[in-house]
Amino acid sequence: MFSRQQLMAVVVVVCSAATGWAVTGVAGPAAAAGEANSNFNSAGEHAFAPAYGQALPPVGFVDFCARHQAECRSLGGSEAKVRLTSERWQVLGEVNSFVNRKIRPAHDIDLYGVDEYWDLPTEAGDCEDYVLAKKRYLEGLGFPVETLLITVVIEERGGGHAVLIVRTSAGDFVLDNRRDDIKRWSDTGYQFLKRQSQENPRQWIALTPKSTPDPGAIAGGN
Fold first, then answer.
1. Which of 14, 23, 73, 126 has its Cβ near the most Cβ atoms within 10 Å?
2. pLDDT value at residue 85
């Protein structure tokens, strides 16, 4: 059962020092390609994170959308899945590791003087800023925006954390600033709370029946 503190991560993401920002599991192109080949046709019952209706968006995301409306615009998305190929798997790995090294880990309070502030990072940021950067890079490289989903989880030590889910033909895979290797969502060890809706990026979907759904929650207005 989630504690009250854990459930607060549904609306506020705090990348605590306990998260560590440790980059682990660095895999070279050959290893990445081998893992991709084993995943291409393995989509099954548990390949995709289950959905349980609408959920509240993080407060930082609401503010981000108010400041960067183009980043949160609805493109008439669908329940699409990007076809996973060896080339796309390599791109995912390269973008994940590149951003993990390009951005210096830093807390919002140190960068902006507030506890929660989402923005596209240039030099430093916390977990959700890494996610925003990876999402931007992958969109520029041709990944459909509706397959790149900002996601809130509870990490192993009980802290709130943000990752990027890429919805593929072989399942949901996670890009994480804590590691360079890309894992299927069910192999991360995280408790998944919510993610962006594929149909409208301002809406959020609960990934656990224990979170409180909010049918009218739309980040940043209409």
1. 126
2. 95
Query: With contact defined as beta carbons under 8 Å apart, do 98 and 108 qualify?
Result: no
* Class of domain 30-40+51-206 as given by CATH: alpha beta
- The bridge status of strand 104-105 relative to strand 124-125 is parallel
Token pair for residue 209?
A: 């029946």
- Calpha distance 21→100 (Å, rounded): 9
Residue in the structure block whose two tokens are 């995943």: 39
Q: What is the mean pLDDT of each run of 10 residues along the chain (222 residues)?
A: 39 48 40 49 76 93 93 75 95 97 94 93 95 96 95 92 96 97 96 93 89 37 34
φ, ψ of residue 140 to 5 degrees: the values are -65, -25
